[in-house]
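Subject: sequence -> structure tokens, single chain

Hey, anyone have a minute? Need the predicted structure for the following. Not urgent.
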Amino acid sequence: MNLKKLCIGLSLALLLQPVAADERATTGAPVAAPKLPAATPAVPDSTLAVSTDAGATFLPPRGWTRKSTPGLHAFTAPEGDATLAIAHGPAVSADDAVEKAWTRLEGRAPAAGTSADRDLRSGWTTVRAYRYPAKAGSDRFRYAQAVHDGHEWVVMLADLSGPVAARRESQLTLLLGSLRAKGYAGPPPLLRKAHPLDAARIAALVDFLEQARIAFDIPGAALGLVQDGEIKFAGGLGVRKLGSTDRVDARTRFLSASITKPLTSLMIAKRVDAGGLRWDQRVAELSPRFRVADPTRTRDIQVRHLLCACTGLPRQDLEAYFRGDELTPEGTLDLLATMTPTAGIGELYQYSNPMAVAGGYVVARQAYPTLGFGEAYDRAMQDLVFDPLGMRSTTFDAAAAQRGNFASPHAQRSDGSTAVVTEPGFNDAGIPMRPDGGAWTDVTDLLAYLRMELARGRLPDGSRYIGEAALLERQVGQVARGGMDQWYGMGLKINENQGLRIVTHGGSMPGYQGEFAFLPAHGVGMALLMNADAGAEVRGFFQDRLLEVLFDLDLGVQARMAERASARAQAAKDEARRLKAPLDAGLQARLAGHYRSDALGDIQIVAGEGATWLDTGGWRSELAAPTEASTATVVETISPGGAGLVLEAGERSGQRTLRVSDGEREYEFVESSR
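Reply:
Had a minute. Here:
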């Protein structure tokens, strides 16, 4: 992944949010959806909606303090350093409405920012978004969105500190997604039965993927399609490695990254199905080594919470990124013990890799108590998941996986061109964290998994692999993920709109991108694996294109993809102008040769070969400096696959320091003699 993803992605999510498929409908023969477990109260509940004077409705953010005055509903985050508000009333334009809203909230409007019209949704006839520049030295995120339905102007305002914005992004997007015009009851149900994936429709999907692969400069991609238990397509496009003629095919291995999470949750479900444990069992009962920094939260976490992204633990990955080469499976559990919850269970969607890792290790060790945590997990996954499903290529043995038919990772250089990732240590650092993202697999094996999911626990020969109750419990919503009909279950993302349920999960590691999705009511599934970071741009577009092909919809995917490819190319040019390498002598002199952080370990700054490198011991990246004038001494990593980590040099008590942040926490490296 690009390391900037560690920090706040809120502005991108808000400003580039595509038109949702739930805004379009079609008709035809009704399709009966299979009965699934009811969602928990953590899923958005429309009965809690608040109304404006003219009848618009929205869902207030859970856990925030509300204060209402005429024309304004203001909400303060539990941390106290963030405000969301819904203002409503007469205005002559969007600009006028936004200015009045800020004045009502804060007494005056902020300095002008940028604004743009957005796609229409939820009964609104105007949607306009406003982004405001942060003041020098400030990390505050300020945003507004004005909507109009012919009756009133409604404005959503956001004023959040950087850490709170990073932590509570899902609540902000849920507030926006829930804002509906008076009388809008949601899109009509999608009733048309999915078309068979015949040769023409498969060709349309393959052609689209090839267009996307070329547009985003992705060397290789593998695609699998299944419908009604039959594999409709399994094959590859492009090459395994730039400069090679070896083609990608249906048996080319890729690092699947977080696609591993649904497989880990399946292993846990198998243990529940066999009676080895219960969903409501306290995890601390399974292993005395399982704990977080808060003893009460340690006591309250149940098996169902292990892969739910809902325990209140923040996304805290920098420790693993910097120290992955020295961590053991046991060490990852010790790392979890240092993490402090920032929200209640079920209050907030916070993607937690360390919690998923602990879940895989603790449950596997309970199944195989004589083995170490890592060995127990590998054994449990092989015995309970890979072997029964016939996933003969899937493995956690990274060295074995990267022999023979495998795809090499690729990422973007600072000049925008695509290159092979030559510093694979970043991905190797994830080996001790493998229950959350360490599986190497191919699309043929993923289709075997999807066929079982679509068959509700049965194998192709009709035999039962797992009971329906345990399997489908993983799709029960544990926490709202961002929209009115989006939630996270147990290692699975679920979107449900127009009566159409899409179950999905993606994966992202340096040089690799993947996604699977299946439609339970229509018997359709797809698996997509790509060997470049740019594949992150393709995953959502391909899912939308699949819906277009299956249901004869027009979601504007082709045009949106072309627009995004053009924007990405321009962004690469801008980035190349923004950064300068190698570092000049003055900046180089302000950096120490060695640093140490109690949390992140030791790093070296190494100059040589016409470049300056950050070396963690497990991976390294070249450093560059921003070209714009700044009072801060800042350097950034720029090597393909490890780009985007921002470090600020300083001094404390006569020792040189480097500070780095993941958006919520700041870490400090201090000069060390080693």
